[in-house]
């Protein structure tokens, strides 16, 4: 979460144009997030929430998930909160 | 006779529920505090000089939540409680094992809720110190989300010889300074 001060989702940019395409764990895990694209936060969060929905993880309780789903769920939700925290609290990661 | 029995049972059950600590000589002011004071509970009683306020609260010292206590007397209730919450007056309350009780121990027992770290679920309303701080110091800071004060937390779940570490987000349930917190997400 620390590296995710806020976000350029370069790797996801292509996927985001097609909201029905599901991203794999490997694709999402490779995404680098920085603070350059906070003006598109709603777009990115919507895309990530859609990924959870397509996997049936919108209201997931992590204790009930298998390893693969738990990793996927944690990765996507970490990205969502990185966007929300980093973009709305610009001083958070400044030393 | 029947009434006496009922009263007796009620007293026994309330005594059994009361949580007891000993007053330690660990001054909070001499500790490195990672978070808090939070989850403040207070008891105000009349005093010859005005009001006596005893506050019990939680502070995170070295990554562990501890229960602490402070007290002060002042002419007004607000002043007494503000002074009691001054952490330079606070001491850590140490939990006691029944087998270690000695006659010279000064015990503090009360029916105030006993707050401790536990597994939480999304949507639950909790005390802030029922969740552990994040292991990364930079992630322990409060942040704002939808005009609400929030923080990340971590929860450790030892399962099948593995340690699963969840992260989550808790936000203050309302805008008041000492409100409870709601579990917004956990993953």
Compact overview of the structure:
The complex is a heterodimer of chains A (about 100) and B (about 190). Chain A has about 100 residues and is an all-alpha fold.
Describe this structure in words.
The complex is a heterodimer of chains A (95) and B (187). Chain A contains four helices and no strands. Chain A is mainly α. Chain A has one domain. In chain A, α3 packs antiparallel against α4 (67-88). The longest helix of chain A is centred in the last third of the chain and has 22 residues, at 67-88. Chain B is 13% helix and 48% strand. Chain B has helices at 2-17, 77-84; strands at residues 19-27, 33-47, 50-61, 64-74, 91-95, 107-110, 125-126, 143-145, 148-159, 162-172, 181-186. Chain B has a six-stranded antiparallel beta sheet. A five-stranded antiparallel beta sheet of chain B has the order 7-11-10-9-8, with no helix packed on it. In chain B, β3 and β4 (64-74) form a beta hairpin. At the A-B interface, α4 of A face β8 and β10 of B.
Query: Averaged pLDDT of chain A, please?
Result: 81
- Output the helix-strand order of chain A: HHHH
Principal-axes geometry of chain B comes out as globular
Overall pLDDT score of chain B? 85
Helix content of chain A: 40-55%
User: How far is it from the N-terminal to the C-terminal residue of chain B, by CA?
Assistant: 55 Å
> Percent helix among the residues of chain B?
10-25%
How many strands, what sense, and barrel or not for the largest sheet of chain A? Answer: none
Give the N-to-C terminal Cα separation of chain A: 16 Å
Q: Sum up the overall morphology of chain A in one term.
A: globular
Percentage of residues in strands of chain A: under 5%
**Quaternary form:** heterodimer
Largest interface summary: A-B, 19 and 19 residues
Order of H and E elements of chain B: HEEEEHEEEEEEE
Secondary structural class of chain B: mainly beta
Low-confidence stretches of chain A: 2-8
**Count of runs of 4 or more consecutive helical residues of chain A:** 4
Q: Please work out how many helical segments of chain B DSSP would assign.
A: 2
Largest sheet of chain B: 6 strands, antiparallel
Number of domains of chain A: 1
């Amino acid at each position: 979460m620390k590296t995710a001060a806020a976000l350029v989702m370069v790797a996801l940019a292509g996927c985001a144009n097609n909201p029905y395409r599901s991203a794999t764990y490997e694709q999402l895990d490779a995404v680098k997030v920085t603070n350059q694209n906070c003006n598109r936060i709603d777009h990115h969060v919507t895309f990530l929430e859609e990924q959870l929905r397509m996997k049936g993880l919108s209201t997931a309780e992590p204790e009930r998930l298998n390893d693969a789903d738990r990793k996927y769920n944690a990765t996507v939700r970490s990205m969502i909160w990185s966007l929300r925290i980093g973009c709305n609290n610009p001083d958070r990661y400044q030393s | 006779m029947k009434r006496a029995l009922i009263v007796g049972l009620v007293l026994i059950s309330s005594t059994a529920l009361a949580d007891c600590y000993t007053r330690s000589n660990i001054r909070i002011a001499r500790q490195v505090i990672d978070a808090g004071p939070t989850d403040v509970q207070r008891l105000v009683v009349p005093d010859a000089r005005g009001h006596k306020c005893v506050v019990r609260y939680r502070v995170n010292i070295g990554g562990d939540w501890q229960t602490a206590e402070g007290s002060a007397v002042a002419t007004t209730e607000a002043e007494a409680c503000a002074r009691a919450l001054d952490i330079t007056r606070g001491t850590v309350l140490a939990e006691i094992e029944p087998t270690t009780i000695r006659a010279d121990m000064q015990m503090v027992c009360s029916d105030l809720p006993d707050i401790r770290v536990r597994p939480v679920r999304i949507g639950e309303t909790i005390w802030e110190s029922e969740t552990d701080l994040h292991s990364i110091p930079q992630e322990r800071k409060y942040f704002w989300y939808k005009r609400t004060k929030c923080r990340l937390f971590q929860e450790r779940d030892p399962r099948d010889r593995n340690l699963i570490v969840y992260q989550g987000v808790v936000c203050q349930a309302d805008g008041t300074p000492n409100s409870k917190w709601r579990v917004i997400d956990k993953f």
